[in-house]
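Re: that chain you flagged

S.,

Sorry for the slow reply, it's been a week of failed gels. I finally had a moment to sit down with the sequence you sent. For the record, here it is as I used it:
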Amino acid sequence: MCFSRYFYGMKKAGGNSRVLKDLLQTKCPNCGEANMFEYSTLHLGKFLKMYPRCPNCGYDFNPEPGFYFGAMYFSYAMNVALMVTAGVAFEVLVDPDELWKTFVSVFLPPLLLSPWIFRLSRAMMLYAFGSKRKKRS
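Prediction finished late last night. Pasting the structure tokens below so you have them in one place:
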């Protein structure tokens, strides 16, 4: 069973590549036009702030209380994949002689990428399990 079938937006114009592009850019899953987050990822003080509704189509970004608790599973999976990849790559390419260098190579990438992982995991949760509705006219 393919996970991508749960991404309900696959049928919109542009197909899989369009939905993937919108997901990675954290655009509204309903219209694909407006951003889900109010500030840039690099604005470290406010990168967590989401719009309550899509400014373009009015789609509710918070479908129910506690909806985004499930996003931590997406975040966990991305962090584990990143840590394993970084650790194996460091071991193969550098061949460190001290254990602390390996620990730094494993824990530094997720720490540096945590704002993007946080936002992407929320977008994945909304794209996978949020409800789809037609655009207002």
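What I noticed first: Helices lie at 15-24, 71-93, 99-129.

Talk soon,
D.
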